[in-house]
Amino acid sequence: MKPPVNSKYDFVQRFIAGEFGNRTPVWPDLATFLREPTPLLDREFCLRSFTFGAPTKYNLDLLEVPTLWTPDHYISEMVPRRIEQYIFLQGEVCRLYSGLHLWFSLLPMPMKLALEQGGRGADCTAAKIILETALDASSLEWLYHLLDTYPDHVVEFSAYRCQYGMVPNMNTLFWEVRNY
């Protein structure tokens, strides 16, 4: 069992290191981002804070990142629009004493808005069936690994109708693992 995620900063350090599985490309700071060897010109990025609750800056182009970046941010690639249209299920899942609890949305929009406008809950068997329907086998196995490894944590994810991310053969990105 790994140590619990004790803060947003702790989470980000472990997220960047790849501890939580499939994700989009991330860079811990501006210098690392600017040394990226693959072309960045036609991609979109977001600036995420190391501080819980701080606002995220979305849909930035290559030229906006250096202008808006501060040392309190790390940089993450946005899911490309050609992939974003294939969003299938997104939400948050945790294990409670009574079993799985899933808060999810099927709306194809940014997760925060999707959960606010179309969020629904499912527990136990219903949550399991929904997850088994949306996540491919590798993603589902990894989700259960995260829930086993980080008890009393919430796992935030997005599942797509196609494979996408840094880990081959997975249709699900894991955005956050946090203590609840």
Protein architecture, described:
This protein has 180 residues and is α+β, with helices and mostly antiparallel strands. It has two domains: 25-78; 85-179. Helices cover 31% and strands 29% of the residues. It is built from seven helices and nine strands, in the order αβαββαβαββαβααββ. It has helices at residues 8-16, 30-34, 64-68, 81-84, 111-118, 124-134, 137-149; strands at 26-27, 45-49, 57-60, 73-77, 87-96, 99-105, 120-123, 153-160, 172-179. The strands form two sheets. It has a five-stranded antiparallel β-sheet with strand order 7-6-5-8-9.
Q: How are the SSEs ordered, and which strands pair?
A:
Layout: H1 8-16, E1 26-27, H2 30-34, E2 45-49, E3 57-60, H3 64-68, E4 73-77, H4 81-84, E5 87-96, E6 99-105, H5 111-118, E7 120-123, H6 124-134, H7 137-149, E8 153-160, E9 172-179
Antiparallel strand pairs: 1-4, 2-3, 2-4, 5-6, 5-8, 6-7, 8-9
Strand order of the largest sheet: 7-6-5-8-9
Unreliable stretches covering 5 or more consecutive residues: none
Number of helices: 7
Strand content: 25-35%
Number of domain modules: 2
What is the residue-averaged pLDDT? 95
Number of strands: 9
The 3D shape can be described as: globular
Summarize this, please?
The protein has helices at 8-16, 30-34, 64-68, 81-84, 111-118, 124-134, 137-149, and strands at 26-27, 45-49, 57-60, 73-77, 87-96, 99-105, 120-123, 153-160, 172-179. The protein has 7 helices and 9 strands.
